[in-house]
């Protein structure tokens, strides 16, 4: 039985988070500099999933100048998928964005990544557009949004 838990990213995780990223996204992976700089800007918006000291997934978010919370990247190692890890990471990310005052969220996915799209829909996102050939080689991107009610 696995003992996967979620926690905030630490700079000491750079090598492992980059390894997960490369495993999941290959040549499209973000670099260690991306993660380091994102942490400098938004230290409470990068979450990792850890199994006995080994990183097995992550989610990264940021807040745009207009106040929109962007979930920039979600990755879970193939062997750890379909166990709720991605969902728990997304919930942690959404909660952190809510604590930061965000009420409008966006996330994107490759148009053929049906498991990710279903997860985002389950979490209250709906499709608002498609950008053709966004990733190159004819791969389109689905743009999804979620809105929270303003607190009184």
Overview of this structure, please?
With 152 residues, the protein is an alpha+beta fold. The chain has a domain at 4-106: 3-Layer(aba) Sandwich (Aminopeptidase). The chain has 4 helices and 7 strands, in the order βααβββαβαββ. The chain has helices spanning 14-25, 32-41, 85-99, 114-122, and strands spanning 4-8, 46-51, 54-63, 69-76, 104-110, 126-136, 139-147. It starts with a strand and ends in a 5-residue tail after the last strand.
Offer a quick outline of the entry.
This protein is 30% helix and 37% strand. The chain has 152 residues and is of the alpha+beta class.
Question: What key phrases describe this protein's structure?
Answer:
152 residues; 4 helices; 7 strands; Aminopeptidase; 37% strand
Q: Give me the CATH architecture of the domain at 4-106, please.
A: 3-Layer(aba) Sandwich
Biggest beta-sheet profile: 7 strands, mixed
Order of strands in the sheet with most strands: 1-2-3-4-5-7-6
- The Rg value, from CA coordinates, equals 15 Å
**SSE sequence, one letter per element:** EHHEEEHEHEE
Helical segment tally? 4
SS strand fraction: 35-45%
Q: What is the general shape?
A: globular
Tell me the CATH superfamily of the domain at 4-106: Gcn5-related N-acetyltransferase (GNAT)
Average pLDDT across residues? Answer: 92
CATH topology of the domain at 4-106: Aminopeptidase
Structural class: alpha+beta
List the uncertain runs. none
The amount of helix comes to 25-40%
Number of strands: 7
> What is the first-to-last residue Cα distance?
44 Å
Give the class-level CATH name of the domain at 4-106: Alpha Beta
């Amino acid at each position: 039985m696995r003992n996967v838990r979620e926690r905030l990213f630490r700079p000491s995780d750079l090598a492992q988070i980059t390894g997960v990223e490369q495993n999941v996204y290959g040549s499209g992976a973000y670099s260690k500099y991306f993660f380091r700089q994102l942490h400098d800007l938004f230290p409470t918006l990068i979450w990792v999933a850890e199994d006995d000291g080994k990183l097995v997934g992550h989610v990264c978010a940021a807040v745009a100048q207009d106040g929109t919370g962007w979930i920039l990247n979600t990755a879970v190692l193939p062997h750890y998928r379909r166990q709720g890890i991605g969902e728990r990471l997304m919930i942690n990310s959404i909660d952190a964005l809510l604590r930061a005052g965000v009420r409008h969220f966006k996330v994107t996915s490759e148009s053929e990544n049906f498991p990710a799209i279903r997860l985002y829909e389950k979490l209250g996102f709906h499709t608002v557009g498609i950008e053709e050939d966004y990733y190159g080689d004819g791969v389109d991107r689905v743009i999804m949004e979620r809105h929270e009610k303003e607190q009184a």
